[in-house]
């Protein structure tokens, strides 16, 4: 029996790809006041960003409860005796802890390995895609856990923010706090370092930001996969993919939309590029 792969909705892999790869995605929740929505399940990205920019109610988020993971584990345990769970960074969410706690709620015998990816968005998603393909090819749980451990060292992400106000208000500002108070015309570029948001530099325009994302990706000489995602600017994402396809095979480039839960903190017009570099 093949190992089953579980992740959360902040991996930003598309529904179609998750279904094709046999990946189960556990959604986080976004709340507008007393209204709660499952990430990408009961609210679309388009609807979320419309409300984010148009509503006066500021959204909040919450991780899945352990019971949500336990329900998935119990279902998959009928199909396999080994499950690999890889979640977004524990520095950014309590999702990893929920996934761990749920192991004690599983009926029957099933080995479940839970790993903190220490990243988010397609930085996590590219790891899940690679692991799922290996699982379909027959890799064991031990082999997959070692693979994820190596990929954690080779996963890199840069994020262009049109503004840091959403990140600051949402309490996920991390080391990027020292960029607050910058001129409005300055656009911050950040990464994930030691599991949390960390600043890299600032640029003066969106065009300069897109150039920075391209240069970041082009600096890697041996690339397993590239992820490009946007919040509300598909044209910019398409243009970046076109530039990248000149240096990276098209079948190694994955695209997605920044999930509603991430969007609470990134805000509209954010863009991100993730790289999964080839291991040794």
List descriptors.
about 25% strand; Rossmann fold; 13 strands; six-stranded mixed beta sheet; 2 domains; alpha/beta; about 280 residues; Hypothetical Protein Tm841, Chain: A,domain 3
Question: Helix and strand succession?
Answer: EHEEEHEHEHEHHEHEEHEHEHE
What are the segments in which pLDDT stays under 50 over at least 5 consecutive residues?
none
Judging from the principal axes of the Cα atoms, what is the shape?
globular
Distance between the termini: 29 Å
Q: What does the radius of gyration come to?
A: 18 Å
How would you characterize the largest beta sheet?
Answer: 6 strands, mixed
Number of H- or I-type helical stretches:
10
Taken as a percent bin, the fraction of beta residues is 25-35%
How many extended strands?
A: 13
CATH architecture of the largest domain: 3-Layer(aba) Sandwich
Oligomer: single chain
Helix content: 25-40%
Q: Please state how the strands of the largest beta sheet are arranged side by side.
A: 10-9-8-13-11-12
Find the CATH topology of the largest domain: Rossmann fold
General description of the model:
The chain has 280 residues and is of the alpha/beta class. The protein folds into two domains: 4-153, Rossmann fold; 155-277, 2-Layer Sandwich (Hypothetical Protein Tm841, Chain: A,domain 3), CATH 3.30.1180.10. Helix content is 36%, strand content 26%. It has helices at residues 15-21, 45-54, 66-76, 95-101, 122-136, 141-154, 165-169, 206-218, 234-244, 260-266, and strands spanning 4-8, 23-26, 29-32, 35-38, 60-62, 82-87, 111-116, 155-160, 187-193, 196-203, 223-230, 253-257, 271-277. The strands form three sheets. It has a six-stranded mixed β-sheet with strand order 10-9-8-13-11-12, with helices on both faces. Strands 2-1-6-7 form a four-stranded parallel β-sheet, sandwiched between helices. Helix 3 (66-76) crosses helix 4 and helix 8 runs parallel beside helix 9. It is globular. It starts with a strand and ends with a strand.
């Amino acid at each position: 029996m093949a190992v089953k792969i579980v992740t959360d909705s902040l991996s930003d892999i598309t529904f179609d790809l998750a279904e094709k790869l046999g990946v189960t995605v556990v959604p986080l929740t976004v709340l507008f006041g007393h209204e709660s929505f499952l990430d990408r399940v009961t609210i679309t990205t388009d609807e979320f960003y419309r409300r984010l920019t148009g509503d006066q109610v500021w959204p909040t988020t919450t991780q899945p409860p352990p019971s949500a993971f336990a329900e998935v584990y119990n279902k998959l345990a009928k199909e396999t005796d080994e499950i690999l769970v890889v979640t977004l960074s524990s520095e950014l969410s309590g999702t990893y802890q929920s996934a761990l706690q749920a192991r004690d709620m599983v009926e029957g015998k099933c080995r479940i390995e839970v790993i903190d990816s220490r990243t988010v968005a397609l930085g996590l998603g590219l790891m899940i895609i690679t692991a799922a393909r290996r699982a379909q090819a027959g890799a064991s749980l031990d082999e997959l856990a070692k693979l994820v451990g190596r990929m954690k060292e080779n996963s890199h992400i840069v994020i262009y923010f049109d503004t840091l106000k959403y990140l600051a208000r949402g309490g996920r500002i991390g080391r990027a706090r020292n960029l607050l108070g910058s001129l409005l015309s300055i656009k911050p570029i950040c990464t994930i370092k030691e599991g949390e948001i960390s600043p890299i530099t600032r640029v003066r325009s969106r065009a300069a930001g897109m150039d920075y994302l391209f240069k970041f990706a082009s600096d890697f000489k041996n690339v397993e996969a590239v992820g490009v995602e946007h919040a509300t600017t598909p044209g910019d994402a398409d243009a970046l993919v076109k530039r990248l396809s000149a240096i990276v095979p098209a079948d190694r480039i994955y695209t997605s939309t920044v999930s509603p839960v991430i969007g609470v903190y990134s805000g509209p017009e954010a863009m991100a590029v993730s790289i999964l570099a080839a291991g040794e």
